[in-house]
């Protein structure tokens, strides 16, 4: 018989589950305020500072590689440290480094006493590179705490749906900062190229992110036990009494069996590489592609990228719901269909010109459909990694898949910048379509895999 105390505990758990979900969504969206603002500032930096697409692409690549390494490193710490402080402090540091980036030209002028020239440019690139790398490293403290928090608060059978809801934070953050930066470029700049506006694309989002980091400190809690609540059903695993050394050895064995020695985790990581190439081709180069290959204004490109993110939200929610409802939690099967849709949508967007009203509508719809399809795998890979590694190593597993995934910036950043400069945007389009098809093929390799690794994990722990 259920008692009133049991009912009260369930209600309280539900409250904290939704509080944690919403707080981490807002917090991670703010990480995007101080990450993807760079993409919207790039056309202004190209015009103001004379940076080439290859140089801007190199910035993107270095930032992405450092971020991937940081997620990998932070994954190990986040599994064992307080996620509340981890995420909050990380966001504060991102905001500070991002704010400093906007002062690059001032710092270069102060050091060299010049406002242009080779020495000025070299110092400017060095300072911007350092602050961007610091930001990239601190960005790695955003997702690992979430990858630890959500499996702590939600049972595996509902994690696909809940984590898909959470993953809308990517799209919300990128979409809102896109609109914000679009208006900043118009209203804070001067002249045809909106001179000087790119700096405000760093300062204003940084201030908002810093305020949000303070809010996270007051909102988050590490796990149900920290507020006196029991673990959710289906997440309890035997935990033998052991010394600190024995527990450390057990954890290392668990990582070896469930993460690094797990073939499914390698498939997810490699698939993540292809997913992120497609995703970053739009997130990093979207405003530039829309303006330079399709002739769209900075404001309208900001709105179109925001629409891409909105349809991405719908795609994530649909992918999570379909996975739990019809595919018994097998996220990898949903990803196969999503990658097919991504390739087709990208091909349609490439082939339809923005030369009249009807074509513009259909091209815009196809651009948004890219978001609808690619954000399904983007969300589901993290869910699959968390479920396969269980809550005991969910952050480490996502750090591992993220490390491989963010190596994609070598291709999407410098690679696509080089291709666009030397061969044109059409070759970029063809490359992205080929990558989407390759990603679909990788997901097919684990078609018959189980939805999670909890049974396997119990065997490892008990033996």
Short descriptors:
Growth Hormone, Chain: A, 463 residues, mainly alpha, 19 helices, globular
List the helices and strands and how they pair.
Layout (H helix, E strand, L loop, with lengths): L3 H30 L3 H13 L3 H26 L4 H19 L2 H9 L5 H22 L3 H11 L2 H32 L9 H23 L24 H17 L2 H21 L2 H7 L5 H29 L4 H21 L5 H33 L4 H13 L2 H15 L1 H20 L9 H9 L1
Helix pairs in contact: 1-7, 1-8, 1-9, 2-8, 2-9, 3-6, 3-7, 3-16, 3-17, 4-6, 4-7, 4-9, 5-6, 7-16, 8-9, 8-13, 8-15, 10-19, 11-15, 11-16, 11-17, 11-18, 12-13, 13-14, 13-15, 14-15, 14-18, 15-16, 17-18
Give structural notes.
With about 475 residues, the protein is mainly alpha-helical. It has one domain: MFS general substrate transporter like domains (Growth Hormone, Chain: A, Up-down Bundle). Helices cover about 80% and strands about 0% of the residues. The longest helix has about 35 residues. The relative contact order is 0.16.
In short:
This protein has about 475 residues and is an all-alpha fold. It has a single domain, classed as Growth Hormone, Chain: A.
CATH topology: Growth Hormone, Chain: A
CATH level-4 homologous superfamily: MFS general substrate transporter like domains
| Apparent shape | globular
Distance, first to last CA: 35 Å
Radius of gyration: 22 Å
- Sheet with the most strands? none
Mean pLDDT: 83
Low-pLDDT runs of 5+ residues are none
Content of β-strand: under 5%
Helix content: over 70%
CATH-level-2 architecture: Up-down Bundle
- What is the count of DSSP helices, taking H or I runs of 4+ residues? 19
Q: What's the domain count?
A: 1
């Amino acid at each position: 018989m259920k008692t009133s105390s049991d009912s009260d505990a369930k209600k309280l758990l539900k409250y904290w589950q939704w509080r944690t979900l919403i707080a981490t969504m807002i917090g991670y969206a703010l990480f995007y305020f101080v990450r993807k603002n760079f993409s919207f500032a790039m056309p202004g930096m190209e015009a103001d500072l004379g940076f080439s697409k290859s140089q801007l692409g190199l910035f993107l690549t270095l930032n992405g590689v450092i971020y991937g390494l940081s997620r990998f490193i932070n994954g190990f710490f986040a599994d064992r440290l307080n996620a509340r402080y981890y995420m909050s402090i990380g966001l504060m540091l991102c905001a500070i480094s991002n704010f400093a980036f906007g002062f690059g030209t001032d710092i270069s002028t102060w050091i060299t006493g010049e406002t242009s020239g080779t020495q000025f440019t070299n110092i400017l690139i060095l300072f911007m590179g350092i602050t961007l790398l610091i930001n990239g490293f601190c960005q790695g403290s955003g997702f690992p705490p979430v990858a630890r928090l959500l499996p702590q608060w939600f049972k595996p059978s509902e994690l696909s749906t809940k984590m898909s809801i959470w993953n809308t934070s990517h799209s919300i953050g990128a979409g809102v900062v896109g609109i914000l930066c679009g208006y900043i470029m118009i209203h804070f700049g001067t002249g045809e190229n909106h001179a000087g506006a790119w700096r405000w694309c760093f300062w204003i989002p940084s201030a908002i992110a810093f305020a949000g980091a303070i809010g996270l400190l007051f909102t988050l809690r590490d796990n149900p036990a920290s507020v006196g609540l029991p673990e959710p059903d289906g997440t309890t695993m035997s935990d033998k009494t052991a010394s600190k050394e024995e527990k450390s050895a057990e954890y290392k064995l668990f990582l070896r069996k469930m993460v690094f020695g797990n073939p499914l985790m390698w498939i997810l990581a490699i698939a993540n590489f292809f997913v992120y190439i497609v995703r970053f081709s739009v997130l990093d180069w979207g405003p530039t592609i829309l303006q330079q290959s399709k002739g769209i204004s900075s404001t309208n490109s900001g709105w179109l990228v925001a629409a891409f993110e909105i349809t991405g939200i719908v795609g994530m929610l649909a992918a999570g719901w379909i996975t739990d409802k019809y595919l018994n939690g097998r996220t990898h099967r949903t990803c196969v269909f999503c990658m097919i849709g991504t390739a087709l949508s990208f091909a349609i967007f490439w082939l339809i010109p923005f030369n009249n009203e009807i074509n513009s509508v259909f091209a815009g719809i196809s651009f948004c459909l890219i978001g609808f399809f690619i954000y399904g795998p983007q969300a589901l890979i993290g869910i699959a990694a968390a479920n396969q590694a269980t809550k005991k190593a969910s952050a480490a597993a996502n750090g591992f898949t993220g490390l491989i995934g963010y190596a994609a910036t070598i291709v999407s950043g410098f690679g696509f910048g080089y291709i666009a400069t030397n061969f044109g945007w059409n070759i970029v389009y063809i490359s992205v379509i080929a990558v989407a098809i390759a990603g679909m093929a990788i997901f097919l390799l684990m078609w018959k895999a189980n939805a999670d690794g909890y049974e396997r994990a119990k065997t490892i722990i008990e033996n």
